[in-house]
Structures are given as C-alpha cells and as structure tokens.
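Go through this fold for my students:
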Amino acid sequence: MTHTANSPPHWARPVQTAVNIVSKLEQAPTLEALPPAERHKARKGEPYRFPLDVIIEPTSECGKRAQVLNATPGSASFEIHCDEGKMLGGAESAPTPLAYFMAGMGFCLMTHITGFLRFSDLDIRRIRLELRANFHTTLGHVERGNQGIGGCDGIETMVILDSDESEERLAEFLEICEEACIASQTILQATPVKVSLVRQQNTD
C-alpha cells in the first residue's frame, strides 16, 4: 500500500499531531501474546524476581509508541514516544531507540548510586555520569529489506564524583553499585534474548 507523509502506512497507529513524549497512563493496557506475568514473594536468601512488560506499536514510518506496564503492583504505567533522526527518515520528534537504551543504563546505575548514598556516610558533593556506546551496523541490502546487521563494540561509563573520600572507599562504593545495577548486569551477563513470531490473521 502506498502512502505519503500525510498518509501514514496502514500498519501504523497514528497519534495526535502534538503529544507528550512521556505521559502517565490512567490504565495499564492488556497484553495480547504474552501470558499473564507471575509474581512471587522472595524467600529469604533468594533474589526478588519481577517482570517488566512493554508494548511497542509504530505510529508512522519511523515513529514508535511504547506502553510500559507497571513492574510492581500499584505502580504506574507510562506511554513513551520514540523517533529516528532525519538521516533515517525520522522527524526527530523524540529520542531514538538507542538513546533510550543508553539513558536507561545510566538511569539504572544512578538509581543505585543515589540509593547507596541514602544509607551511607560517604561525603559526595556532586555526581555526574557520562556514557558512550560504540555501535555499528553494516549497510543494508535490498534482499534484507534494506536492513543491515547491528552490534556494539563496547560501552564506557565515566562516574564523575566530587569528593574528598579515599580512592579505596569510592572504588568499593562504585563496585557495589555496578553489581546492583540490573541494566549493567543484563548486558555483562549476556542475558538470553528470544524473539518469537505471533501470527495474527484478520477473521473479518
């Protein structure tokens, strides 16, 4: 099906012209393919496990909308919009997927840094994180829908601290926070990723 900039693809779910990049949902959406998430109370000595479900739909050729379901009972669900750069045909109306990916890593690590400091006597005057990922992709080919093969050569995180504490105390503090950071450990431990096709046929 052909379309123009004013006529989005038939598989897109267009949104209003002006939307908030991030907004809170009044009600969590319903999953269609994933089974209901199982939640169990953590037993002593066992890790606390929790699911985090996300629904993604295209809003245009490059625009995407994510509905992030509440990870814990009673917590909020959010809607997040994403776009691509103009080089890829996007409108730069929202951060790119990889920008969210990197920001998520930094946010998670910062959560554990500030969480540690809430219960610590460490004297820290300023905290700043700088992250760099060296992504790569091959040139796309028409036989692959003009899609290349992506990857990453590495991610570097600089933790800038203004403090008079000893190097040893700060290093120990950072090691604990990195071990606690779920986002960092997800990458470091090469977490298995499974992508499954769920075919949906129109019965109308």
Summary: The longest helix spans residues 97-118.
